[in-house]
Amino acid sequence: MNINSDVLIVGTGIAGMYTALNLYKNLDIVMITKSTLEECNSYLAQGGISTARDEKDKDLFIEDTLKAGNYKNDIKAVEVLASESLSNIQELINLGVEFDKKNGFLDYTREGAHSVNRIVHCADKTGKKVSEALLKQVIKRKNIRIYENTTLIDLIDKNNICFGGIATNEESIVNIYAKNTILSTGGIGGLFKNSTNQRTLTGNGIAIALRKCIDVKDLNYIQFHPTGLYEDKAEGKRFLISESLRGEGAKLVNINGKRFVDELLPRNIVSKAILEEENKTNSKYVYLDITHMPKEFIIKRFPLIYSECKSRNLDITKEKIPVTPVQHYFMGGIKVDCYSRTSMENLFACGEVSCTGVHGANRLASNSLLEALVFSKRAANIINNNIRNINLKCIDKQIDNQYATNLSLLNKKIVLKELIKIRGDIKNELVNY
Ligand code: SIN
């Protein structure tokens, strides 16, 4: 079976949907997602989206991003991120996202390594609220077709030019031809025994890039979030206790009730301090304590975390929360320029699968959704401007079921192998295939 389109977008998270909404309405767009629309990682983002509050805050925001990233960031990309932050937040508001407000103004919160409060949020459900607002708009667009449970297994390419992708929905294999293809397939958390990510996030886009010799970057930069909920149970997806709790005043203490770190340092430093403290106290967790704050405030500001913990018989208004570092984010990925262009012609990458270089070696809190917005919009703009010069080519490429199965398996293993090759120390954290 063949599908012809102008633009193929692989992944229906915030990066994918925002790209689709910023493309011209007369373009024929096909979106595919490996699972369901709701099972997407963007839905899980709690904390919020950072933004330079105004022109005056831009330089400080840039400095905070660089400092958190150990100055390994791409400075040009960071400048773009900060400069275009507020306009994209405004665009989200125009698209129907209702960020929390205080006295009629955006209620900026704070997270680790930010010098000032500059994170917009929808309580602790920012990713879900933004995703829902975008999806509502995407569904209204007659020019966008969405296929769920459809996994990209390969690109259709020749001489380093991309002509679309090959996808499978278990029953059939389909060639989706496109003038431009965008990979927004997310990160790699599903490859880790403990991660805040959906288990379906197995680095599919990166695997395909590795197989096709498309440039990748910084694959050794993996972020561990300091405060995954510790549960004495099997490994898998861990519930995140948002950094914004610490931004609002929650304290980290060891099992003896002693504070041991400044909670608002960059994530890599706080995670390291927690692991050291766990070792010293011979414990598998430390505690995050927010019990000193008023109950009404906690329930209103953190409804999701309150209810998820309550469902596990933990009342965070009265009890300390056991937490431990877990895999959370991948700073590396498919190397892109400031317009999300990869090293393969007509192929773009946006969101966590891409590496713009904005995060350096350690992402500043709440910069991930911002990166997804800023650089997806830039990809859409460049596609809008250039697509009329591209002819749709349906080059001959047919694969059979056996080959498709082999490719799926290979895609699952290839990133694991690469991570072990680059960072042997990560081996114990990874799942076994
Ligand atoms: C959090 O709420 O702690 C996660 C936000 C992020 O990853 O930036």
Characterization of this structure:
The chain is of the alpha/beta class and 433 residues long. The protein has 2 domains: 2-221 and 331-429, 3-Layer(bba) Sandwich (FAD/NAD(P)-binding domain), CATH 3.50.50.60; 229-325, Succinate dehydrogenase/fumarate reductase flavoprotein, catalytic domain (Flavocytochrome C3, Chain A, domain 1). It is 32% helix and 21% strand. The protein contains 12 helices and 20 strands. Helix 1 links the parallel strand 1 (2-10) and strand 2 (29-32). Helix 2 packs across helix 3. The radius of gyration is 21 Å and the shape is globular. Bound molecules: succinic acid. Succinic acid (SIN) is lined by residues 45-47, 240, 242-244, 329, 365-366, 368. Keywords: FAD, Flavoprotein, Oxidoreductase, Pyridine nucleotide biosynthesis. Its cofactor is FAD. InterPro entries: FAD-dep_OxRdtase_2_FAD-bd, FAD/NAD-bd_sf, NadB, Succ_DH/fumarate_Rdtase_cat_sf.
Question: Which descriptors apply to this entry?
Answer:
FAD/NAD(P)-binding domain, alpha/beta, 7-stranded mixed beta sheet, 4-stranded antiparallel beta sheet, L-aspartate oxidase activity, 12 helices, 433 residues, Flavocytochrome C3, Chain A, domain 1
